[in-house]
Amino acid sequence: MNCWETLGVEPYSDLRALKRAYARLLKEVHPEEHPEQFMALREAYETAQGLTARAAQANVHSRSPVIEDRDASEQPVVPLEPDARQQAKIDQERLAIAENEAFARRMQALADAFQELLQDAQRRNELGNWQALLGTPELSNLDIRLRHGALLLPALIQLLSDKQQQPLPAKVLVLLDDSFHWTQDQCVTLPVSEESMQRLCLLLAAAHSSIASAPPRTGWKWFFKAMLDTGGRLSRTEFFVGLALTVAIVWLIGLAGFWVLPRDGFALLGSGLTLMSAYVLVNAYCKRIADSGRNVVLMLIIGIFVPFVYLFYAFVSPKKDLTSGDPRTAFVDPLVIAVNTLFRGGFRHGGLQRSRRFAMSMTPPLAWGMLAIFGTAALTVLFV
Known about the structure:
16 helices; mainly alpha
């Protein structure tokens, strides 16, 4: 298709006809929506202008006589057509402006998409949603990606500081930091305070630790270590579960010995079970007292004269929650501790939460074994 067919005019039409045709087609071919068709139309228009101008010039030279003695000032001034190159430059500038506006709209839509995903309590926990959004072609440009990261960071800090909101999972936080270089590039100026950035660095370290650490598993090894080992501390949940399991086991062993062993053998077994139960009870109380931060020997002596002290230390809270050596740290995600400590004024782990996490950490052998032991002990109490 030649330039005349593209414009829909007769070959070598005058410039006015070309302009009318170009203006009419330009309304149908928007530069932003159809850039290739616009450039083809513009090229056809410029080509037709050039051909028509050259044809008109050749026609004038062939028909007009040469007047040598006429003063140049007396010749008529023929108005020239606008320069095609200048018009093309104007059109290109308009196209560039339209492209910039379209790009700005896309960037705003992308920023809004990040904010909407962050505020969606269900979708923001899915790693795939963030990966899909970060895979947008525009974010392959590092400057654009850093700009969107700077826009998202204040909203993320606000979310982490809100006690009513669930924090982002560790893998999502690490993905966002790797993509936006929040803690990796210290030369980037971010719209948050230096203190917030320091807390965010500590939070990201906890997120990496959360991903690398295996979930806690509580098995029979935990039971024997908690009840028989003299070192360490015990939480309330471990204390009551361990003692209840010990009582059930001692009861079943004693009942079996009563039915199987002779009287002398049963008496010997009973003495051994009594000593073992006393050791487990005292050891467990020593660990509970150590968990409160008090002097173990002094509290045991006071407890001899005031037995109520033992009951008190069975329920007492630790001196400082989740410190080094605290048994509760094994059942709490490091990221949860870091979020509450760094952004929410301190971490407190409620009793129901501890019990739930402890139960979820049990291995199948321990869980089924406890169920069988407690069930059997309950049946024997009812029917024996």
